Amino acid sequence: MTRQIITFHGGVHPPEHKAESSHYPIRTAALPARLILSLQQSIGSAAKPVVKVGDEVAKGQLIAAADGMISAALHAPTSGRIEAIALQPVAHPSGLSDNCIVLIPDGNDQWLERSLFDWRNAEPNAVRTYLRDMGVVGLGGAVFPSHLKLSSKTQLDTLIINGAECEPYITCDDRLMRERAAEIIAGILMVQFLLNAKQVLIGIEDNKPEAAAALRDAIKASRSQAVAAIEVVQVPTLYPSGGAKQLIKLLCNIEVPSGVRSTDLGVQCFNVATIHSIYCALAHAEPVIRRVVTITGNVERPGNYEALIGTPLAELLKAAGEKGSSGYIYGGPMMGFELPSLAVGLSKAGNCVIAKTPADFPEQPREMPCIRCSKCAEACPAELQPMDLFWFAKSKNFGKAQERNLFDCIECGACAYVCPSNIRLVDYYRFAKSEIWAAEKTKHAADLARERFEFREFRAKREKQEKAERLAAKATQKLAQAVASDDPEDAIRAAKIKAAMAKAAGTSEVPASDSTVTPEVDQAAQLAAEKKAKIAAAMARAAAKKAEAEAAVPMLRNEEPFMAPSQTLPASSMDKTDRTKEILDKRREERARIAAMSSEERSEWEAAKQAEIAEAKAAAALRKAEIVVPPEGPAPSLDEEKAAKIRAAMVKRDEEKARLAAMSPEEKAALAAERQARIDAAMAAKAAKAAKDE
Ligand code: SF4
Ligand code: SF4
Q1: 614 in a domain, yes or no?
Q2: SS3 330
Q3: Which residue's alpha carbon is at the smallest distance from atom 4 of ligand 1?
Q4: Helix, strand or coil for residue 563?
Q5: 21: how many CB neighbours lie within 10 A of its CB?
Q6: What is the arithmetic mean of pLDDT over 610-623?
Q7: Residue 386: CB within 6 Å of ligand 2?
Q8: How many structural domains compose the chain?
Q9: Which residues contact 690 (CB under 8 A, 6 or more apart)?
Q10: Which residues constitute the domain of residue 40?
């Protein structure tokens, strides 16, 4: 049954220019003097070098390991010595240098000892990891790591093998299919097995009948039962039929909507050259160290060359007989880019090098304004509005460009090919995409920084909380120990801890739920407080008594008021200084004697002193009575009057002293405080007056 082919929207028919190179068998490129191997051989992360300068390596030896899952390993294409790991010019439209490993071949081409991988019995994940480590990437130009395409969550309905090779000038896949059809069919069976695909469709443009015939012959020759599910389908020659979505539409009549993966619709797509490299890896344990590349254009021997990855393009052009050129295109004329230099190494993505001729590649006419003719929209196979994308990209309105599905653009160049204004539309789309990726990268970095900051804040908060919990646990433990203790000091400590805990909890009271604060703790704290108050009162009393005793000593030694007239010493009997000295000595001795007294002696002394005071009071009362009721008789003389005043003053003083002696310590303290307050007030008034005067 003939399969019905339903073509996709748009597409163009540029001159093919395939015959120049497709008629010649694949030639093997000579071993170059040096290989320049870029570490960036896939669309993912660059590989990480696992060798150092000066290392001797064997052919097929790993020299740079895959960095993560979206990455691919790099291997030594031949045996030799690592000369450098440094920045070198690479095949990239930017013309910038990138990290490369420079290998100097030793000419022996000595293989590393290889062992086959039992892929049939291995876990799917193990197969994927193996292919990643063998450096298998899409060789159709996209260099997407192939192992990622071997994981399908759903049962795969159709495996599509892309042999369309729709871009002008390029014939490497054509020659590969013609010359290595059996290996390709073997590779297809492997992938079919790994993906458990129900059917396999090999899509080939109808301008490659030899390739289609070779594959059909290989299918017939295969002894595998599974080849029954493989079908070679020739599709119309229409650029870009080799686009994955376009080929799926052609072969399966399935349109893959924007944002949907083809595997979600049960379809997966592999390029024929990629299938061949998977075959080499699984069947011969050969990593991707070589590829077929078309060298065409202004060269004497255009054709396809099997060259080692890293071979300088200048050497390939030299082998093809370069005749001098106005420039070189890496890839095809539609999707490729101008090479900044020929001193770059062949990459895994490199399917074609075109030496330009002025006849085939005339000077690009000057860009004219867009006339909104919509020819670009008619040609666009992705059914986009290229003129709108151009406008948004040019005005740097990238958000709008994204809204109009900029990333569905496969950069096929069909729009630019038909544009009457000669606008290099794809350049604008590439610019817009790179700007959006850069912004995404910056945003990602900012998001990471924000996440790091938030985590740091969270960690600090958590550590603070943990510390608080630790301290609370410690306090609870101490509180429990204090509660269990009989020592009143511990009861005070418990009360303090309780208060501190309440303060830490942000309340003036201890939470009711605090199990450590028991009635026993409260009682103990109360007792302790009472005891403390009693001690303070006792100390105050003792201090008062001491002060009283000190005050009493001079009173007792002041012979003039208290001495009996019989005991009064004549003024002339003792020198005044000696008397003062004697009095002071006696006072000192008395103080020392009182201080040395035991509590009992002191009590006795106090009792005696009280008795003396009582006796003195009685005497004073008697003298007062004598003054208040003057004796009858003549009026006193002036001396007698003066003596009476003195006696009255002495009585008053004695009364004051008696009153003081009768006071309790608390009353004395209150009196002292009152006096002190008066003194302070007086001093403050004095200071204020002095300040005012100044
Ligand atoms: S083909 Fe060119 S001129 Fe015409 S609408 Fe598109 S961008 Fe504008
Ligand atoms: S380059 Fe993009 S916009 Fe232009 S035709 Fe191709 S897919 Fe459409």
Answers
A1: no
A2: strand
A3: 373
A4: coil
A5: 26
A6: 74
A7: yes
A8: 2
A9: none
A10: 19-355
